[in-house]
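Input record (one chain):
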Amino acid sequence: MLFASLALFASAALATPLQRAGGLQVEISAPKDAASVADLSFEAKITNNGAEDLKVLKYGTVLDSLPTRSFAVTKDGAEVDFTGVKLSVSLEENAENAFTVIQAGETVSVTHDISALFDFESAGAGTFSFEPLVDFMVTKADSELDALVPLAGLAKAKVDSNAFEVAVSNVDKVALLGEAELEKRSRVSCSTSSYNSFISSSYTEGKALASLGVSYISQYGSSGSIYSAYFSGVSTSSVSSKLSAVANENSSSRTLSCSDPYSVCDGNVIAYTLTSTTNIYFCSIFYNEVATSRLCSGTSVASRNIRGGTTLHELTHAVASTDDVTYGCANDQALSASNKLRNADNYNCFVTQVYASTQC
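The corresponding structure, as predicted from the sequence alone:
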């Protein structure tokens, strides 16, 4: 019976080959029709058609097996809300784990169960369009990553993606694994007192950094050199609005937790936000980060290891609708204006640079 079901699925599947870039080719296998949201499981096959082995950053693409946004989903031209996880990542401690090596001529496969990652229920039954996210950042497989700035020197290899459609009959909500076990808790929830205190301090420092960023924009406007670096082409009111939302955040229902109920902490993830609840979860490497004052002695903005900056990053996901387009302060500055506005890491690097430049 199981074999027959698999054979039926294979016969109903469609394959959407994508144009090649940098030797990479992506193919998505998906059902044309799904009886329910629970059947929305896709297989992404990424093939290296080039002559050299490649090292490809997983985060923010279909190579990422975590419950993050690996597809853009629309219905009747309207975006379907993402309800999964948004991340803060560090590549300093376990950089190689953030990459997938694809040898020349070989294919790697990643299965994506997206049933619980989008608000299909609110969109209603019908035909949904799915477009895989394939903005890959790559380097040669034998290249050594920069110890301080691992993303430096990576090349962008964008594979033009082709959207595909799936008709879904039953769109009843599917819970993300671990969601049912969550309990309502107070703001900071952690049985380890030292972690509890660390999270609380990061929250206070994150809001203070947001206020400092707003003050900088108020004083210098778009002509400020730090603003120009991270938000050139973006209206100051738009950036100030997002930072003000963090500075004024006062929800008593949002959880800041040291647990990992969704098994997202993979050694590179510092913290993550579940967008459906806006609860924030901190991974073990978060507690290696330092107070904002250390920017004056002992660390740098580019290191992205300020605990208040990380919490601010996550709070922009929770209250200001930011996304994770890229990571690393140099990469943030190279984004288009529209992506600078929505990329959470831009706010982290901006406010920590403001602190380092004006408070030290």
